[in-house]
Amino acid sequence: MEMHQVRYFLAAAKIKNFTKAATACGVSAPSLLRAIGLLEQEFGGALFTRERGNIQLTELGRLAHPHLQQIHTEAEEAKRRAKSLLDVGRTSLKLGIMCTIAPSQFVKLIDNFRKRNPKVSLQILDRTAEQLQTALLAGELEVAIYGHPEEIAEDKFHKLPLYKEKMVIALPQGHALCRGSEVKVSELDGEPYLERTNCEFAQFGEKVFAEKGVGGPTVYTSERDDWVLAMVAAGMGYSFLPESTARFPDVAVRPLVEPDFWRQINVVTVRGRPHSPAVGAFVREVMRAKWMGRPALSKRDLVDRDDDAEEDVA
């Protein structure tokens, strides 16, 4: 059974005339009759009574009609949904953003995306890196922006690097460690610590600190970076943050060294999974944007490779 046979059958059943039904379907009467004949072979009997200038459904035709009507309706709905999915102007996009990334990095990006794609319904979720990875694999998100020092299931994700930034130590103004231009991990031993519970470096950092024998009391824990920074400003201890988020009145920032920590932020999709045009439009917008004042890392890598290729040819 083919969809055009179903369409011809429904037209003939409604109009009750093969010639007029063929005209309505945009085909010749012989083509319509052949298609209905093949359909009758599949059902094992006549679907119409043939009378001069008038046709009626047989008992078998009346039995088949609601089922064929349902097939046609569902096929049309599937086509409608597919067309909507393929039309970037009329679709939705589920975007995940890591909650430890400063909003200032995205305001211009989101604004530009909405201006170029005004009919896309954009849904944004802020989660931890681990939660975003899980949501991507489960199909709850189509694209996410995050970074993690020990990313899992690398083979399951496609990543485009956007930028790298240094992890820093936030200290109260006037703290003894502010005298230097940087802070060594060993210098933090015994210092009171203000913990960011959503920090993607938590387990990784704890391991490094333990290996170096560095410790100290954790005096405050919060999911909110602004609260942690307020506690730093109040002189309650130090915290460990990305450079772009460690901006707060009366807080001094110093790079952490020996070892130093960097995080790479990527735009991530699930490898091999088909995506709506809205995802492609968003990724293009991401590649247009400036990250930490510079083009995306993956865009810079392409330029560098092209330059290298030109030098090889020369």
Question: Describe it for me?
Answer:
Helix 1 (3-15) crosses helix 2, helix 1 (3-15) crosses helix 3 (29-43) and helix 1 (3-15) crosses helix 4 (59-86). This protein is an alpha/beta fold and 314 residues long. The protein folds into three domains: 3-86, Winged helix-like DNA-binding domain superfamily/Winged helix DNA-binding domain (Arc Repressor Mutant, subunit A); 92-160 and 270-313, D-Maltodextrin-Binding Protein, domain 2 (3-Layer(aba) Sandwich); 164-262, D-Maltodextrin-Binding Protein, domain 2, CATH 3.40.190.290. Helices cover 42% and strands 25% of the residues. Strands 3, 4, 5, 6, 7, 10, 11 and 12 form an eight-stranded mixed β-sheet that branches. It is built from ten helices and 14 strands. The two termini are 62 Å apart. Strand 13 (290-291) and strand 14 (294-295) form a beta hairpin.
Secondary structure elements and pairings:
Blueprint: H1 3-15, H2 18-25, H3 29-43, E1 48-51, E2 54-57, H4 59-86, E3 92-98, H5 107-116, E4 121-127, H6 129-137, E5 143-146, E6 157-172, E7 183-184, E8 193-196, H7 202-211, E9 218-222, H8 225-233, E10 239-242, E11 251-257, E12 262-270, H9 277-288, E13 290-291, E14 294-295, H10 297-313
Helix pairs in contact: 1-2, 1-3, 1-4, 2-3
